[in-house]
Amino acid sequence: TGDSVDTLFPKAGVAIHDFQSIAYAPNGDLLVKTKSNLTRFNGETFELLGSLFNNSGDRFSIGPEGDLYLLNFRSLDLVLRYDGETGARLKSFLQRGDVGLNDPSIRVAFAFGPDGNFYIAHGDAVGRVQRFNGQTGEFIDDYLESANVVDVVELLFTSQGDLVTVSAVQG
């Protein structure tokens, strides 16, 4: 019907500032990324469960194995991998040089595909979507190169497995 059912936030004692992204974890918890941390809430009651980790990364995604992948535009470690349950940092998943991206001002978006591989979009004049092994981070191929993949702010796959890119358009 489109009617509002409930207000998730703010609940008593919970304030979310500088919101960046949100997702449900495989265990049902709600994860909320702000500029300074990743916070976990009970996915049904929205009770605050605590912070998974403090990091100034920009966006996150949940991998097929349940680990968290954090994009950090301003770091040489472009994508960091964290344990999805404890928040412990596991390793650097991709570095800027792995994707041929040395300019931190170029927008980057990423997603896991239905095949379990990791896809990352970036570009200025001609954009590209590159495919990496979702477990090891090894480069597989340039999945797509197109002038239509420029200034990408979001990358996702439909339930049919089609790739969708969303670009920032100024006009």
What do you see in this structure?
This protein has 171 residues and is an all-beta fold. 0% of the residues lie in helices and 44% in strands. The chain is built from no helices and 14 strands. The protein has a 4-stranded antiparallel sheet with strand order 1-2-3-4, with no helix packed on it. It has a 4-stranded antiparallel sheet with strand order 5-6-7-8, with no helix packed on it. Strands 9-10-11-12 form a 4-stranded antiparallel sheet, with no helix packed on it. It starts with 18 loop residues before the first strand and ends with a strand. The relative contact order is 0.11. The model has no long low-confidence stretch (mean pLDDT 79).
Relative strand content: 35-45%
Number of DSSP strand runs: 14
Uncertain stretches: none
Largest beta-sheet characterization: 4 strands, antiparallel
Mean pLDDT across residues: 79
**Rg from Cα:** 17 Å
Cα separation of the termini: 34 Å
Spell the H/E element sequence: EEEEEEEEEEEEEE
Counted by DSSP, the helix tally is 0
Strand order in the largest sheet: 1-2-3-4
Brief summary:
The protein is mainly β and 171 residues long. It contains no helices and 14 strands.
Overview features:
171 residues; mainly beta; 4-stranded antiparallel beta sheet
Topology readout:
Blueprint: E1 19-24, E2 30-34, E3 37-41, E4 48-54, E5 59-62, E6 68-71, E7 79-82, E8 89-94, E9 108-112, E10 118-122, E11 127-132, E12 139-146, E13 152-157, E14 163-167
Antiparallel strand pairs: 1-2, 2-3, 3-4, 5-6, 6-7, 7-8, 9-10, 10-11, 11-12, 13-14
